[in-house]
Amino acid sequence: MMSTKPIRGALIFNINRPSPFSSRVLSADVATATQESPRIWPEYKPPTTGLLSYLPKSVVPYAELIRLDKPTGTYYLFFPCVFSTLVAATMATPMAAPSAVVGTTALFFTGALVMRGAGCTINDLWDRNLDPHVERTYLRPIARKAVSPEAAIIFTGAQLLTGLGVLLSLPFECFWYATPSLLFVATYPLAKRVTHYPQFVLGLTFSWGAMMGFPALGVDLLTNQAALTAAACLYASNVAWTVLYDMIYAHMDIKDDAKAGIKSIALKHEKETKAVLTGLAAVQLGLLAATGVAAGMGPVFFIGACGSAAATLGTMIWRVQLKDVKNCWWWFKNGAWFTGGGIALGLTGEYLAQYLGWYDDEERNDEKSRE
């Protein structure tokens, strides 16, 4: 490996890259300050198990680029779409049929899969000079030069066209609601260079689906004040949730981010992280409850959705070990289903209660008992 002459006060990265599949050695020398031994990172090995192992070798780098083998991000992008679809279903006139809810949800999942992949590709294009310096990201396809920036740009265009096709399968009003989100998709990676709060920009991006269910089911946010209030509260609630879970995610890279000059909320509030997480959870829950009030939800929503969110968020914040990378990843990955799944189940129960007229039956029984 080429030697690097120490320079006083400067942090020097020396990357030995004889080939995109070789071992990567990252050394950091701060003259006369600390003596760190070189960090030897594993070499790239093609996948031998899981979905990617069944794909042609030429396709694997592109599947890795869109994180096809790591679908957690897709779930986090998908859940706000589910939430808004179920809320909108109860506010539609007449109430949306189960077939419409299921069909709309399926289209949203397809769109989430495609657009999350596009977002990952754009992110890796922005970070192609930073990823080689971070242990978790140095083997990403662009960072290891398995995919060229030019090929990644073309691939991004193909993904965006596919996403457009999915979008056009929904009512046309959805096109106008979805288009502004592309600005956030493109600028999020840049936010990591200029602010310690890129998670907030990510929240604005990943939460966009919290509004999309309304036009998808024919609920006009411009003329329906109650629906607009519900959508705004739901969107803001999901922004808080995104900042919360991505703050935990950011703790996995906190040391490498500091060395590479990447900004994050985890670095800015490292000493008071759990206090910040608690505040974010309180904001999320308050806004989620406000969504239910604006939408006229019943007890199934408040107990099922809000109650499960409070329980799962509280448990995660209490038990997550922020200095343990594997533990942070476990809570980030499973938190999507603990909290997102709980809210979705609560909303599904509320929708079914209203669609099947359970609340109406209870009101009739109360009236009979009073008589």
Identify the notable features of this structure and list them briefly.
single chain, 371 residues, mainly alpha, Tetracycline Repressor, domain 2, 2 domains, 4-stranded antiparallel beta sheet, 15 helices, disordered N terminus, disordered C terminus
Describe this structure in words.
- It comes from Paraconiothyrium brasiliense.
- Belongs to the UbiA prenyltransferase family.
- Pathway: Cofactor biosynthesis; ubiquinone biosynthesis; Secondary metabolite biosynthesis; terpenoid biosynthesis.
- It is a multi-pass membrane protein.
- This protein has two domains: 1-43, no CATH class; 44-370, UbiA prenyltransferase (Tetracycline Repressor, domain 2, Orthogonal Bundle).
- Helix 2 runs antiparallel to helix 3, helix 2 (72-91) packs parallel to helix 14 and helix 8 runs antiparallel to helix 9 (225-250).
- The chain contains 15 helices and four strands.
- It is mainly alpha-helical.
- The radius of gyration is 23 Å and the shape is globular.
Count of individual beta strands: 4
Radius of gyration: 23 Å
Strand content: under 5%
Mean of the pLDDT scores? 84
Note the run of SSEs as H and E.
EEEEHHHHHHHHHHHHHHH
Name of the top-level CATH class of the largest domain: Mainly Alpha
Separation of termini?
A: 90 Å
Helicity level, as a percent range?
A: 55-70%
